[in-house]
Design brief:
By secondary structure, the protein is mainly α. It has 13 helices and four strands. The strands form two sheets. The chain has a two-stranded antiparallel ribbon. It has a two-stranded antiparallel ribbon with strand order 3-4. Strand 1 and strand 2 form a beta hairpin.
Length: 344
């Protein structure tokens, strides 16, 4: 019991509450001798950080055991740039250039594989969902209501643009709409001439209504690819597709029918006439030169500006028009309250 009390540590407390441990002289000497024996034996040297050597096993050089005297060990541990540590660093880092070259090769290969996986994901997941939504938007009429998740479509477009698939998405979109417009043109060719104006108006109205939904959800593609890289606008490109694949193929057939309908009031609804004529002018303004009299009845500033020397001709033309209207059953109405002119 007394021996145990002698070997035990006694804890003292000073006035600053600093605890100090004291032991007997015999126990202190035992601890010092034990530590000296351990230091004189095997010492663990920390491993310097170096790139991994290809083909080597990870962690094989960690915790390397270094055998030597206590003085040599202390020299190694106390010196920051000793010869021993320099030798270890040069040995471990000798394969660094080869490792860097291998890393670049692996990085390029991994990027190629990631890009291939991203394209495959676009083909399997993103574009099929967008294609279905575009089909539903293209075939809807102005009076129909089709349930489409515009937020989901916008999300797909956003992901495609962020994954560097803008060009692929733009080409797929224009190809899809081009195929649809080719079908519309085929349908118009099969339409009877007496119904061509009305059928063309339905096709144009349906297409422009669809663009009011398609263009906003592809806004991210339009902003960060079409406008910034192609210096164009998505809606203008899609309207140009309609002009190239539909209107241009039927404009020569439409013009005689429109001129004939314009000369015979109410043969075609005035709203339909106005929609078709204004639509053709918005697609190709130069088409107004094919029938200036027709387009000037719906669009201002088609005819050349008036000239003062031709005022009498203008007045004669207006009087002739009024006579024709009165002869066709359009009376001028009550003229009793109209102020008499000097000529009467």
């Amino acid at each position: 019991m007394e021996a145990m009390e002698d070997d035990s540590l006694s804890i003292k407390d000073d006035h600053n509450h600093n605890y100090c441990a004291s032991s007997s002289s015999s126990s202190s000497s035992k601890v010092r001798s034990y530590r000296s024996s351990q230091l004189s034996g095997v010492t663990t040297v920390p491993q310097p950080v170096c790139p991994a050597v290809p083909g080597g096993e990870p962690g094989t050089r960690r915790g390397k055991l270094w055998t030597g005297s206590t003085a040599a060990a202390s020299k190694f541990m106390d010196s920051d740039s000793g010869s021993e540590s320099s030798e270890v660093s040069e040995t471990d880092c000798s394969a660094a250039p080869a490792a860097v070259e291998g890393k670049f090769t692996l990085d390029s290969t991994s990027k190629f594989l990631l890009n291939a996986m991203a394209v495959e994901d676009y083909r399997k997941n993103h574009w099929p969902n967008l294609e279905k939504a575009i089909d539903r938007l293209l075939i809807q009429s102005p009076t129909d209501h089709i349930s489409v998740s515009y937020a989901q479509i916008y999300s797909y477009v956003y992901k495609c643009v962020c994954q560097q698939h803008s060009e692929l998405l733009y080409n797929d979109l224009t190809s899809k709409i081009t195929r649809h417009l080719q079908q519309v043109s085929t349908h118009l060719q099969a339409s009877p001439p007496e119904n061509l104006i009305e059928t063309f108006n339905i096709a144009l109205t349906q297409y422009t209504t669809s663009l009011q939904c398609i263009v906003p959800v592809f806004m991210y593609l339009n902003k960060f690819y079409i406008e910034s890289k192609l210096n164009r606008d998505l809606r203008e490109d899609l309207m140009k597709l309609f002009a190239d694949h539909v209107a241009e193929k039927h404009v020569n057939t439409l013009m005689p029918l429109l001129i004939k309908a314009h000369s015979m009031p109410f043969e075609v609804q005035p709203s339909t006439m106005a929609s078709v004529v204004k639509g053709l002018y918005s697609l190709r303004p130069e088409w107004a030169q094919l029938a200036p009299a027709l387009f000037s009845g719906f669009i201002p500033q088609i005819n050349p500006p008036a000239v003062e020397s031709l005022l009498s001709d203008y007045a004669a033309h207006d009087q002739k028009l009024q006579m024709e209207l009165s002869m066709n059953g359009f009376p001028r109405g009550d003229q009793s309250r109209k102020r008499a002119s000097d000529d009467s």
